[in-house]
């Protein structure tokens, strides 16, 4: 046999063997099915001279959620439809500057106080506190510079089929007029059971008021795809807190029975949104707090479900909070263009903000939002995704 030929054959065999071994070593973790994927981190721009990052959580089923440490904003939520096609169902932008310049709270963490405080003031232990006004005569979502407009410290983690992002922020005594140094931690967790969990905790060194929430704008047909009027909504609530001028609650509890506010059974959002009803006229649609039938501080209970019939996407919301604010995107007017390159028109998204009731610091008849030194504020909200 020709020696050169024999050497070539041996070389070829050795090369094939090495390639085979190399391929086995470089198999992607996701294809093995039993290895944890890491949370991805990427630069997202700068804010006041500091780097801002964006983090990607992804589960074994391909669901992907992106969060930036600027404002704790959920920038993207990609879910499959009934045919397995993934769409982004959260309104927002693909760059940081738009969030800084032109964001009506898309995806943001809200604090210190979600929703409105009437006349931007309250009395706590006999002392009056005056807040910054940013909604007519009222304080909305924390004031001029709420938690949605600050840079949070971020720490990603993964394990046990979960991917998490832990965000922390210290709100200084007097910030936006609120008393006490407030240490806040928010943990976003995406699990392989297709649940998206948000855990909030906070401590203070002075008596203060706290009401944290998330302000994701949802369109389960896909952001930029049109209005949400055909989405079928169920709210586990037999009453709501009516509002007066300025959308400040009157302090009353009204039954939803025989009104357009009744979502105790699934109803299309658009079915009664134009009804001749004073509360809808005040809010130009739905922008109210519903009083949940079940309130459990320790264990999240069902608050709402939403079904989008075209895509088949279905979302359940469980929470430890006593209320949920349903907002039907009434003030979106087409002047904002989002990630899809399409303008966000009226009612092109809805928000379901789990929370304590609006203006609670001025309403002693409402569940308390007071946090004292030595106590820990804790609340959890879980979104569970599926298709029908």
Describe what this molecule looks like in 3D.
With 388 residues, the chain is mostly beta strands. The chain is 10% helix and 37% strand. Strands 11-12-13-14-27-23-22-17-20 form a nine-stranded antiparallel β-sheet, with no helix packed on it. A five-stranded antiparallel β-sheet has the order 1-2-3-4-5, with no helix packed on it. Strand 2 and strand 3 form a beta hairpin. The protein is globular. 43% of the residues are buried.
Helical fraction equals 10-25%
Low-confidence regions: 1-34
Mean pLDDT: 92
Q: Please identify the structural class as seen in this structure.
A: mainly beta
Q: What is the tally of helical segments? A: 4
Percentage of residues in strands: 35-45%
What profile does the largest beta sheet have? 9 strands, antiparallel
Distance between the termini: 68 Å
Question: What would you call the shape?
Answer: globular
> Using only CA atoms, what is the Rg?
24 Å
Provide the spatial order of strands within the biggest beta sheet.
Answer: 11-12-13-14-27-23-22-17-20
Number of strand elements: 27
List keywords for this structure.
388 residues; mainly beta; nine-stranded antiparallel β-sheet; five-stranded antiparallel β-sheet; 4 helices; 27 strands; 10% helix; 37% strand; disordered N terminus
């Amino acid at each position: 046999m020709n020696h050169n030929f024999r050497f070539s054959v041996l070389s070829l065999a050795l090369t094939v063997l090495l390639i085979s071994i190399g391929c086995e070593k470089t198999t992607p973790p996701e294809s093995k099915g039993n290895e944890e994927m890491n949370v991805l981190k990427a630069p997202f721009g700068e804010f006041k001279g500091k780097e801002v990052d964006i983090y990607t959580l992804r589960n074994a089923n391909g669901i992907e959620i992106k969060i930036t440490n600027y404002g704790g904003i959920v920038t993207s939520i990609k879910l499959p439809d009934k045919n397995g096609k993934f769409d982004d169902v959260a309104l927002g932008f693909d760059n940081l500057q738009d969030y800084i310049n032109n964001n009506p709270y898309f995806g943001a963490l809200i604090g210190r106080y979600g929703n409105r405080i009437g006349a931007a003031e309250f009395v706590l232990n006999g002392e009056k506190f005056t807040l910054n006004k940013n909604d007519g005569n009222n304080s909305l979502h924390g004031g001029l510079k709420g938690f949605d407009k600050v840079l949070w410290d971020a720490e990603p983690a993964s394990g046990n089929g979960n991917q998490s992002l832990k965000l922390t922020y210290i709100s200084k005594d007097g910030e936006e007029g609120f008393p006490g140094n407030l240490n806040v931690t928010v943990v976003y967790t995406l699990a392989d059971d297709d649940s998206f969990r948000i855990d909030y905790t906070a401590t203070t060194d002075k008596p203060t008021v706290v009401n944290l929430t998330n302000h994701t704008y949802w369109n389960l047909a896909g952001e930029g795809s049109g209005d949400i009027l055909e989405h079928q909504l169920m709210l586990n609530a037999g009453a709501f807190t009516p509002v007066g001028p300025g959308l400040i609650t009157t302090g009353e509890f009204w039954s939803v029975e025989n009104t357009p506010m009744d979502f105790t059974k699934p109803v299309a959002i658009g079915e009664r949104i134009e009804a001749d009803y004073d509360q809808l006229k005040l809010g130009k649609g739905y922008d109210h707090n519903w009083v949940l039938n079940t309130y459990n501080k320790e264990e999240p209970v069902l608050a709402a479900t939403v079904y989008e019939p075209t895509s088949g996407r279905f979302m359940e919301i469980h929470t430890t909070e006593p209320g949920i604010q349903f907002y039907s995107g009434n003030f979106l007017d087409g002047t904002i263009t989002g990630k899809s390159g399409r303008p966000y028109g009226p009612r092109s998204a809805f928000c379901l903000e789990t929370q304590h009731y609006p203006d609670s610091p001025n309403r002693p008849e409402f569940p308390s939002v007071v946090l004292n030194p030595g106590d820990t504020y804790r609340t959890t909200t879980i979104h569970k995704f599926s298709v029908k």
